[in-house]
């Protein structure tokens, strides 16, 4: 709903005019968002999905998705992705792991599931099982690393050197009380016996440690904004003196801390699964399109920013969103509604992976279609704070924007827009920088109802604020 504006007082008008007019000159030339590859998990537990060839063509021509992870080695899918350039991670079923722990079994599996499709289909990785350690199945766990080693050797003997072999882990691999992140460690009894040898294998083969972080499974009503990448007070780690503004970073750094404690913090990390359902049962009020859009949309922006995490700064993580489609044969409502797309290939919501489209913003009350970034007369729009927004709310906006990779250097001490040194002035810059970078659509200026969009050029001295 459009707000009715009232005129600002002259001092307030002049301050905002001067700040935005001068500093927007810095924002506009440098608003291009960082680009990095985002993958999806292509699950098929449904009876209404489009043909695999149609899916491959859709991803290739209509999205920026350049990698998929499947939960088997389905030959129809592998054939469909031939000549698309889209990288595919295939999965060994948990029940097949013991048979692959010896070389003949691994060679047979590679001969049947990899060699017929290479190199026309780009298979970049084999995931050996899924979350096996968390099953506590002693036989599967005992055979896991031997199977990984056998598959790696089988590939090498077949002269295939560009496929990594790894296995995805849930966060159940961490010991209880792994908060804050610096306190995290692998489960007792697993750290030196299971994970140290496995991480040594990853180091030797230059393959990644794959994890499935899900803030969805760890949030409470008090930490919802923290889980969704929305403005919040953050969680302070007293040991590292680092402040965490989102749960995803905290979970990533918890895994990193556990790896470091066994001496393998140099091994790469891949996010094999993460996501948020867009619909749930009546007892799940926080499972809705708005929150799914906020989590996945902000996740894409955060990963693409290259900012990394507090303990792993400036690192970009190969990340696979769960999932590509809503899958109607899964057991619960939420499990059936993790998809970015419906079976007819229309988006459930847009997180910014559609070509010639922008990601929807994280602060909107409901998901909306992308709108034009220009006014009716072809003029620019600006995002500014509401006059009734508190300094605390604006500081939260400022902290959030500057934590996801938007360039806040101009408002740092010594920067061109540091003066006037007030929370409102700095938040004005940050909110507008975010709006120009990730939209600009009106919902990218909502900021929990503390911002609004104006098409009135500040340089005309007719800038209006809502009350």
UniProtKB/TrEMBL annotation:
Molecular function per GO: glucan endo-1,3-beta-D-glucosidase activity
Domain X8: 381-463
Topological category with respect to the lipid bilayer: Lipid-anchor; GPI-anchor
BP terms from Gene Ontology: carbohydrate metabolic process; defense response
Keyword annotations from UniProtKB, A to Z: Disulfide bond, Glycoprotein, Glycosidase, GPI-anchor, Hydrolase, Lipoprotein, Membrane, Plant defense, Signal, Transmembrane, Transmembrane helix
Superkingdom of the organism of origin: Eukaryota
Name of the molecule in the record: glucan endo-1,3-beta-D-glucosidase
Lineage: Eukaryota, Viridiplantae, Streptophyta, Embryophyta, Tracheophyta
